[in-house]
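S.,

Sequence below, as promised.
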Amino acid sequence: MEIAACPIDNELKDLPEYTTGIIKPSTRLINAGALKANGITKEQIEKGEEEKEAFEKFKNYLKSLKRGKSLPIPCGHNIDKFDLGFLFLWFAENGEDLGKYLNLDHTIDTLLRAREVWPEATNYKLGTCCQSVGISLTGAHRALNDTIANKELLKYFLQGARGLRGKAATEEKRLRKTFEF
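The prediction came back faster than expected:
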């Protein structure tokens, strides 16, 4: 298992990234199909970071993203049906409520947005979506690589929604400055 986060602020500027590297699961069985898709070996997992330590570090990172009463909004490609399930389970296994660290009332799923923007696409894989707008994705299915590419895809969609494509984000007239991703 790996965890990565590449947050942006409301001006679409990058905030500090976070990655755990490979985490050695304390109780979970390792799915051979997932290892093959990610290119991770059992030897790498054995040398990985202890799960409890990785959890505490990630929890503290999420705390650092809180702005006043505003929690970060989770974003990802198929996040609603895939990533959030893992996070809910991981936080529950560690006696924590994910809702204390992320705004779960609002998620942004770039897979759903891609289906709206490109209804005739042959598929909606992250790599395909990124390629269609000129975003590089190398080392797909590794947490940090996918998260960096997804962040750029999210920016692409948000710039389009804000009418900023081709303009500097600083040219946007903001109605309020308190909303953050």
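The helical segments are 32-38, 42-46, 51-65, 79-93, 110-117, 126-132, 143-161.

Coffee later?
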